[in-house]
Queue: 3 jobs
Job 1
Amino acid sequence: MQQDKYLKQGALTLSVSVIIGFLVDYAFNLSLSRTLTTQEYGDYKVAYAYATICGVLVLLGGDRVAPKILARPLANKSAREIGGFVVFFGKIALALSFILFLITYLSGYIHLDSWSVDDHHALLWISAAIPLIALGAILSRVLQSAKLLMYANFPWRIVLPLAKTLVVLALAALLEQVHLWHVIVAGIVILAIITSWQFKVLKHRNLLTLARITPVTNPPQLLATSIPMMLAMLVTIAISQLDLYMLELLALEHEVGHYAGAVTTAHMIPVAQVSVIALFIPLLGQALEKSEEHAEDVLWQGQKVLLITVLVLSCGLFLSGSHLLQLFGEDFFSANDALHFLILGSCFWAVTAFISTWLQYTGKGKYVVIIGMVTLVTDALLNWLLIPTHGITGAAMSTCVALFLASLLTWATFLSTKRHAPNGHSMHSGEPGNR
């Protein structure tokens, strides 16, 4: 009964989050594309992709493993244990973020032969946001694991893009010319505000304390569990962003901006996918504390909701995608064919994503990483072959084929491991990945 109530309330929360969040994020991208030049808009999307990937990298999977590891501390309301978990991964994230900032700065110097920040790519500016992105991710995961979905999702899905949209409009009204660094600095300030607010929510609800924390037990084993999850997530993000980097290398500058418009339009499917999984992940973490059989009920319940959601959204985007693209400008209609391939590819992967999560949570993350690497290499090779001749449509075709391959291999792995798994296998078998 309590689980049904949580699912109904969570479904309503996430539905609002997905729909309003998509509209607000779309408004942000529209305002940004009309305020900046097409080239600068493309540079922003490349920089944003870089920050997203690095935000996952520096956490070493702390956000991914949180629902599984924190299921018991949250049930016991052990704020000290949760604080120890957050501090452990927070320190790692800060250290790695600083290293990445230095690497980005030095790489820019080698490329440009200049120490001046003004001469560097937007990647350097956005590198300052990486620790905030990482901290926000892990705090959101704690809130999500505690089934506080509104506090976990609304700030990032709705408040962040809405605030950025208002800032862009204000800058356009106040300044004669808006530069890319204006947008990035404003975004960093908003990130800091949201992260601070989420931290206060956790403290107010006695779910987190930084005073007299309980350090994590056996850090090497924890990292052995979290890093494969991080690698799997990293590869997934890299696949979605690889096209932008390869278009930057192999296509015309303005085409990157046009492709970014198509990616933004198709992005509603991954957002819905992540939101549905976020609804069921806390239940999956709790169920795995009991047995795999118990957890399978959660898996198939989530899979059913995910399949229906993705199919409805995919059909809707196929019908309305061209009209949404033209909101960016008439010249963005050149990305219409690319959009169709991106929708199809996103659909292939979205109906597989929860199965991929299941493999990670049941100690089979290495298979997910291998599948991801095969997919990434496939996407890169196809991009190299198709972009020079087919431009942004070739990039989208590459992603579509690569994601179809990923879906096929993931389902094959899931069915294969299920067939060879002994009946009644418990999640407490003693393997590091199953603790």
Note: Confidence is low (pLDDT under 50) at residues 423-435.
Job 2
Amino acid sequence: MDIYYSYPIDEEEELSLWRRCIKSNAKLGDEELVVEHDFGNIAKPSPHRLKNGQVLITFVEQGKAALEGDHNIHTALISSDATCN
């Protein structure tokens, strides 16, 4: 199972979109950056499994500041699940 979440790359950065595998023993796999970090402040990731096995993820880019009102909806098509090492 994969989880998708928004989290900053470092303390001074805006939120980026990440994912991780949850193993059957409840341990987490490595973090993977899903979209380039130069997207704005990412929020509300919502993954959707397609019939062909790919994952369509929708998310909101909140611009440089969440309260500016500059919100854009994006999608990303992901062809495989997170690495589960």
Note: The two ends are 13 Å apart (CA to CA).
Job 3
Amino acid sequence: MTSEDEPDVTFTSTVHADEITFSEVPDTSVDFPGDADERSTSGSDRTNLPNPVRPHVTYHDIQVDHRIEAYLDQADRTDP
């Protein structure tokens, strides 16, 4: 993989919970406004947590690993 293939910005997070209950199904999204190009993406891997979750169901021993990768639009770049 060349440096051009690597995202300009990468954000990763991991969340653990012994138990969690949602009062309603959350509406979640990631947007890439501004100078991000079409390769920008996000996604998650879930353990013991379905997608979508159900309201008023208690889930136990959950983990969510989330990753966001943003690529800046090449047309907006300037050489240093």
Note: The chain has a mean pLDDT of 89.
